[in-house]
Amino acid sequence: MKKILFFIIFLCFSLTISINIKANNDIYVIPGGESIGLKIETGVEIVGKYSVSTNNGKKNPWQKSNIEIGDYIEKVNDYNVENNESLLKILKQIDESSCILTIKRNNKLIKTNIDIVKTNSNEPSIGLYVKDKMLGIGTLSFVYDNKFASLGHGIYENNELININNGDLTYSNVVSIKKATLNQSGEKRATLVQNKIGEIKTIKDSGVYGVISQKINKNKVKIADIEDVKCDDAVIYTVINGNKVETFDIEIIETKYQNSINSKGIKIKVTDSLLLNETGGIIQGMSGSPIIQNGELVGVVSHVTLDNPMIGYAVYAKWMYEDLINY
Questions:
Q1: Quick check: helix, strand or coil at residue 68?
Q2: Residue 13 pLDDT exceeds 60
Q3: Residues 74 and 188 occupy one common structural domain
Q4: 311: helix, strand or coil
Q5: CATH number where 286 lies
Q6: Within a domain: residue 45?
Q7: Phi, psi (deg, nearest 5) at residue 216
Q8: Domain-located, residue 46
Q9: Which DSSP string corresponds to 100-163?
Q10: Is the pLDDT of residue 203 over 60?
Q11: Average pLDDT over residues 84-92
């Protein structure tokens, strides 16, 4: 089983969006807590420009082009570009001194000419740094029917939700912990398991959602209504070693009644001595951990407070359920 070691953890800020909560029958879901891996194909994003070394000196093939950092390459001439590999393959196939790039910027398509130069090793280049995927870990929040909810917040770049073509959900194994200290966030360090257990379908302000093929054998719990969440003791499910889901004590110290989604509806404090000893409090990679109070799923860990890692925030589980069933 191939594993990939990496330390990219998601812990982001959420925006407020409007949504209506239905007054309906009780909703039961399978609580998560498992450490997961997220492999997201973002499209071919331009992240930088560079001068190409050729047999005739340094060349800037993009110099006269209308290209900005953050643009996405959609086409080269009439060929669709799906990833970095396909971009290189197309450049080799056309074997021309220039081409037309179709790029997406702010959801608008723009066409621009760009030169193609040969490197010292006779490879075609347009002098652009690109990326086509993002890897990270987080925590599975809950499963409803064949759908999953995770993270408890969106994934952002330049203050905007990232572009997603598609993505895979896997498990991950926590191999070590960087303990949180005052004004220094901690993090889970994990290996990503290659076996796919689901597909990522959408990223919203409240979390990452998709379909799951892996069966999780746990008892279902009811999702609490927002007004039923109390300032009192609760527990979170999360992983701090390997892939073992453990239960840790917390206290809900503040709740906010909300008519629209916000990822900071619940304020929590870690009280479990074992968790504090191992992690220092709430750490990156813990986002998505389900919060259970009186046998009901009340929320999902979303943020940490840097000046006091014992304190963090959570999004109401009811909001995530609404986003899950409506994506």
A1: coil
A2: no
A3: no
A4: strand
A5: 2.40.10.120
A6: no
A7: -115, 120
A8: no
A9: EEEEEETTEEEEEEEE-EE-TTS-EE--EEEEEEEEEEEEEEEEETTEEEESSS--EETTEEPP
A10: yes
A11: 93
Q: What is the arithmetic mean of pLDDT over 91-117? A: 93
Q: Are 198 and 213 in contact (CB under 8 A)?
A: yes
Per the structure block, which two tokens stand in for 2?
């191939």
Which residues 6+ apart lie within 8 Å of 259 measured at CB?
none
Q: Which of 134, 144, 142, 128 is nearest to 43 (CA)?
A: 134
CA of residue 323 relative to chain centroid, distance = 15
User: Model's pTM, two decimal places?
Assistant: 0.81
| SS3 of residue 183 by DSSP | coil
Q: Does residue 76 sit in the same domain as residue 172?
A: no
Q: Is the pLDDT of residue 90 over 60?
A: yes
Q: Tell me which residue of 187, 52, 20, 227 sits closest to 122, measured CA to CA.
A: 52
Indicate the residue among 126, 144, 177 that finishes a domain. 126
Q: Which of 87, 105, 126 lies at the terminal end of a domain, its last residue?
A: 126
Contact 252, 267 (CB under 8 A): yes
The total number of structural domains in the chain stands at 2
Q: Which amino acids are annotated catalytic? A: 153, 272, 287
Q: Are residues 221 and 151 in the same domain?
A: yes
> 202 and 85 share a domain?
no
The pLDDT tens digits of the residues spanning 238-249 come to: 999 999 999 999
Contact 165, 132 (CB under 8 A): no
CATH code of the domain containing 103: 2.30.42.10
